[in-house]
Design goal:
binds fe (ii) ion, alpha+beta, Jelly Rolls
């Protein structure tokens, strides 16, 4: 009940008049809330950011960046954390050929798939037979729900083996965090282009990080995400995509099958229209405060599955 209520409230806060009101309040509030030099998180901020138009996301990330610089200590993951702070993403390594085979066979042998980049909620689609998705020239993004992704035991092994929780803790500067989203996407060549191929930022939470598992080869000609490195620290500017869509600063996050990346998806990024062969990718997202997409994508429907992976 509370989940549905919050979902409705978040959607309502995106309506034009309310949105402008929130932007105005947020501009003033973020100055005060984030002035506190002693602590990074507060209960009030965690709730307030749920309705943010993005201003607080940028302010918080910048504050977190300075906290990190001040409190930095040597540890084995330092290079990775530095890279995420400075260029918005980091390559973590590769899983074995065997694991790649197990993962891709598992997803490609499913009977059904949602014909959208996330399964449910405001961005969700329809559940259709996988064959139909593969043969329909108008389908581009397909996705498998949280329960399906997590029923592949390899996912939790990969989360552990690549220290995803520890990286998230060190990047978000708290141990109080959880996985709020796991999504496996199948992308293919089609006659249509998804909205995620436009330059955008993921408005999930002010303190979040995403890990990607590439089950297939991902290159500039084959579906690799474009990212503007370091832009997770840029101020929120809704016109940014208008003048940066063709920027030479955009980089492809390319990787052979099996590659694992950590990405701060508050950085400006876009999907890739160029795709020759099917691309299969899983994302695992951690947050240190409530994420609005947990509600709008109806991830709460899988709260028991998420609870298990968060243990
Ligand atoms: Fe995105």
């Amino acid at each position: 009940m509370i989940n549905k209520f919050l979902k409705a409230l978040i959607i309502l806060s995106r309506y034009k008049i309310l949105k402008y009101l929130i932007i105005a309040v947020e501009k003033v509030a973020s100055r005060f809330i984030l002035l506190n030099k002693k602590s990074l998180y507060s209960n009030f901020l965690s709730v307030f950011q749920l309705f943010s138009s993005g201003q607080i996301y940028s302010e918080f990330r910048r504050k977190k960046f300075f906290f990190y610089q001040k409190t930095k200590v040597n540890h084995p993951l330092e290079k990775t954390i530095d890279e995420i702070h400075n260029q918005s993403y980091s390559f973590l390594g590769k899983i074995s050929e065997n694991d790649i085979k197990t993962g891709s066979n598992f997803f490609l042998s499913q009977n059904q798939i949602y014909n959208s980049h996330v399964p449910l909620g405001t961005e969700g689609g329809e559940k259709i037979p996988l064959d139909q998705f593969l043969n329909n020239e108008n389908c581009n993004y397909g996705s498998f729900d949280i329960q399906t992704s997590l029923s592949l035991p390899k996912i939790s092994e990969i989360i552990k083996n690549f220290n995803m929780r520890e990286i998230a803790e060190k990047y978000l500067l708290t141990k109080n965090l959880e996985i709020y989203s796991v999504n496996t996407m199948l992308t293919k060549k089609s006659n249509t282009t998804s909205g995620v191929c436009n330059l955008h930022r993921d408005l999930d939470s002010m303190s979040s990080i995403t890990f990607f598992i590439y089950w297939t080869n991902v290159t500039a000609d084959n579906g690799s995400t474009l990212i503007y490195p370091g832009s997770h620290l840029f101020n929120q500017d809704k016109l940014f995509s208008n003048y940066a869509s063709n920027s030479l600063n955009l980089k492809h996050i390319e990787g052979e099958k099996g590659s694992i990346f950590a990405v701060d998806t508050w950085a400006w990024h876009s999907g890739n229209k160029n795709i020759e062969t099917n691309r299969l990718v899983t994302w695992v997202r951690f947050t240190a405060c409530p994420a609005n997409t947990y509600f709008t994508d109806e991830n709460y429907k899988f709260k028991d599955d998420l609870k298990k992976i968060n243990k």
